[in-house]
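User: quick one, sequence for these C-alpha cells?
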C-alpha cells in the first residue's frame, strides 16, 4: 500500500498542475501519453503506467472510452486508474482514432519480468484463463480479452488485485470488466496472483 501511495504522491507532484492543460492540448497524438507510459509506450513502473505498444486496437479504444465515461478509473481505491482518467476525459472520438493509429506504430517489445512465483502452480491456474486469453496469453479478440504475454508483470498483478477487490470491473456498465472480475476471484489470494503472472511471464507472443 505504501508504494501505491508514493506513486500517487509522485503523480500529484508531477502532474497536479499540468495534467489539465495537457489533456486539452491538440493534437491529441502529442507526447503527453509517453510522459507516463514511456517512450514509444514501453511502460513505466515508477508511475505504474503499463506498456501500450503492441496493444490491440479494439482493447486500447475500449479502455480509453471506459476511462472517459468513468466506467474505469473512478473507484476511490483505484489510485492508478484515477491518475489515468483525466488523460482520457477530454479526448474526442477523433482523438481516440488518432491515438489508436499513433500507438499502433510503436514497436512491440515484450516487457522484462520483475516478479517471481510458483510457475507450475500458476500454469494450473492459467488453465481457467486460456479459454478467453488464449493458450499463449496472446489475447482472443472474439472474447474481447487482451493479450497478457509481454505486458508489464507488475501491471498485471495490480489489475488482478483491483479486479479481485472490486476496484475494477464493478461499474454497472463495465460488461467486460465484470466477466474478468468473476475470473479473478478464482485465483483465491495474492499468492495465486503472483503464481499465475509468473506463468504468464514464461509465455511468448
Ligand atoms: C499521469 C500519467 C499518465 C498519463 C499522462 C497517461 N496515462 Fe495512461 N495510464 C496511467 C496509469 C497509472 C495507468 C494504469 C491504470 C491502472 O492501473 O488501472 C494507465 C492506464 C492506461 C491504459 C489501460 C491499459 C490497459 O492495459 O488496460 C491505457 C489504454 C492508457 N493508459 C492510455 C493512455 C493514453 C493513450 C494516454 C495519452 C492520451 C495516457 N494513457 C496518458 C497513467 C497515465
Ligand atoms: C470469460 C473470459 C475471461 C476469462 C476466462 C479470463 N479473462 Fe481476463 N479478461 C477478460 C476480458 C474481457 C478482459 C478485458 C476487460 C476490459 O475490457 O476492461 C480481461 C482483462 C484481463 C486483465 C487486464 C488486462 C489489462 O491490460 O488491463 C488481466 C490481467 C486478466 N484479464 C487476467 C486474467 C487471468 C489471470 C485469468 C485467469 C485466472 C483471466 N484473465 C481469465 C476475459 C476473461
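Assistant:
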Amino acid at each position: 500500500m505504501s508504494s501505491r501511495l508514493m506513486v500517487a504522491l509522485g503523480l500529484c507532484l508531477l502532474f497536479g498542475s499540468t495534467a489539465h492543460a495537457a489533456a486539452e492540448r491538440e493534437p491529441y497524438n502529442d507526447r503527453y501519453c509517453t510522459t507516463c507510459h514511456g517512450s514509444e509506450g514501453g511502460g513505466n513502473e515508477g508511475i505504474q503506467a503499463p506498456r501500450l505498444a503492441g496493444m490491440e486496437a479494439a482493447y486500447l479504444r475500449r479502455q480509453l472510452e471506459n476511462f472517459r465515461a468513468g466506467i474505469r478509473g473512478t473507484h476511490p481505491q483505484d489510485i492508478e486508474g484515477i491518475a489515468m482518467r483525466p488523460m482520457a476525459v477530454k479526448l474526442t472520438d477523433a482523438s481516440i482514432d488518432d491515438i489508436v493509429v499513433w500507438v499502433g506504430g510503436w514497436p512491440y517489445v515484450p516487457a522484462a519480468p520483475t516478479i517471481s512465483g510458483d510457475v507450475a502452480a500458476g500454469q494450473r491456474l492459467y488453465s481457467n484463463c486460456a479459454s478467453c486469453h488464449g493458450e499463449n496469453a496472446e489475447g482472443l479478440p472474439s472474447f474481447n480479452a487482451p493479450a497478457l504475454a509481454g505486458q508489464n508483470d507488475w501491471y498485471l498483478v495490480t489489475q488482478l488485485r483491483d479486479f479481485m477487490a472490486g476496484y475494477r470491473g464493478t461499474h454497472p456498465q463495465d460488461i467486460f470488466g465484470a466477466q474478468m472480475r468473476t475470473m479473478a476471484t478464482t485465483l483465491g489470494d495474492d499468492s495465486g496472483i503472483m503464481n499465475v503472472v509468473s506463468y504468464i511471464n514464461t509465455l511468448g507472443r
